[in-house]
Amino acid sequence: MVDLGDPIQVRDRNRDLRMAEKTRKDMISAIMGLKQGRAYFYELLAFCQVGHSPFASNALIMAHSCGQMNVGLKVQGDLMAVVPELYLQMLKEADEQEKLEPAKLEDTSL
Questions:
Q1: Is the pTM here over 0.70, yes or no?
Q2: Domain segments of the chain: what residues?
Q3: FRET pair for 57, CA 20 to 30 Å: which of 19, 24, 45, 104?
């Protein structure tokens, strides 16, 4: 518990919060710096249905979908704020991979 009346505790808490934020941003940058990391985040955003409507006729299913999408939007916001250029690269790589997937399926059917 931080005593907001104690300037030393407030200063120390603010320092700790800044360090935690820097650590979080460094972690996001490190993961997104790897092709496998970008693929992981893309799959996570797809799983969270980012970019799709969470509507469902069943209220419980819709509530679940909204919660799932809320997590995805938080992750997407973090990625776009910390490494916007790598976020765009992730989208390009995913698009290229999706273009290759049908070709792979056609090749295996021969």
A1: yes
A2: 7-108
A3: 45
